[in-house]
Design brief:
alpha/beta, elongated
């Protein structure tokens, strides 16, 4: 990975116009001495909704994928209990290629007080026109809340990680209600991909399986069981041995072989999600079967 060159500006109680102005200044200042203007290669706007307890994790994930997906990223951090206001940190992260650099933009927005309840009005002017918008929602979404409803309304894809949710399988019901509004991806589902490939290779021997026991997160267990149920055409009993990572699967008491390869890291998984467009009917069927 090339060494990133970062230009940054921070402001308190700022306006959208001020953010746009400072971003333009950073782009002008970032030109390498004697070089050509830097390249903006954004193919999307990436929004991330990250409550304060998720902010650090979101920043680490974004740093890990900046070179692979140089885009405009809006990191929205709601702080509804503070006085009304909008604070911003704007950074330009550039990766040199010869006498030029490929640059991505990160706009971190602290939404204080009432500003946290109207995030779309802040994000909308900062979207790059005519490019798709991906929304990564950290923690369990507030289904039925204004914040989620507004941001889904301006997004083309919603990316969640149901491993981060407490209300399972209950939260899968309202998630499924969003499928006709926005394409949905789930990082917990992505982390089962190697195992789904392995289980598919066991067909037709697994056609009559009745009980699935999963050593992994509750979300992974429910989604795997939902996927199997939707593919096999009958209900399954699911048992969960909670683990931090997916470590094993038993089918009717018999352990399945361990799949080859290593699980991807958080940045790799999110990067893969940002390469996808359109709905995933197999995932949607798994979610509906898991409820």
């Amino acid at each position: 990975m090339a060494q990133a060159l970062t230009e940054e500006w921070t402001g308190v109680d700022v306006s959208i116009a001020q953010i746009e102005r400072e971003l333009a200044c950073l782009r002008a200042e970032s030109v390498l001495e004697g070089g050509q203007p830097n390249l903006r290669t954004s193919v999307m706007t990436h929004m991330a909704w990250a409550p304060p307890e998720w902010q650090h994790a979101a920043e680490e994930t974004l740093a890990g994928m900046a070179e692979r997906h140089p885009s405009r990223t809006l990191l929205l951090v709601p702080r509804p209990d503070e006085d009304d206001g909008l604070d911003a940190t704007v950074s330009l992260r550039c990766f040199p290629i010869g006498d030029r650099a490929i640059c991505g933009e990160v706009i971190e927005l602290i939404l204080r007080g009432n500003r946290a309840t109207a995030p779309a009005s802040i994000a909308l002017p900062l979207l790059i026109s005519d490019l798709p918008v991906f929304l990564r929602w950290r923690s369990e979404p507030g289904f039925g809340g204004a914040e989620l409803d507004q941001l889904v309304g301006i997004a083309d894809r919603l990316i969640v990680d149901s491993t981060e949710w407490e209300d399972l399988p209950g939260a899968y019901g309202p998630l499924a209600e969003l499928f006709d509004r926005v394409a949905v991806s789930d990082i917990a589902w992505d982390r089962t991909e190697r195992w789904r490939g392995l289980l598919s290779s066991l067909w037709p021997e697994i056609a009559d399986v009745q009980v699935v026991r999963v050593q992994g997160t509750r979300a992974q267990a429910l989604l795997l069981a939902g996927w199997l149920s939707s593919r096999l055409g009958h209900e399954l009993e699911v048992e969960v041995e909670e683990r931090e990572h997916l470590e094993g699967i038993d089918l009717d008491g018999k352990p399945a072989p361990f799949p080859p390869g290593a699980p991807p890291n958080a940045s790799d998984v999110l990067s893969t999600q940002l390469d996808r467009f359109g709905r995933d009917p197999i995932y949607e069927a798994a979610v509906r079967a898991a409820t």
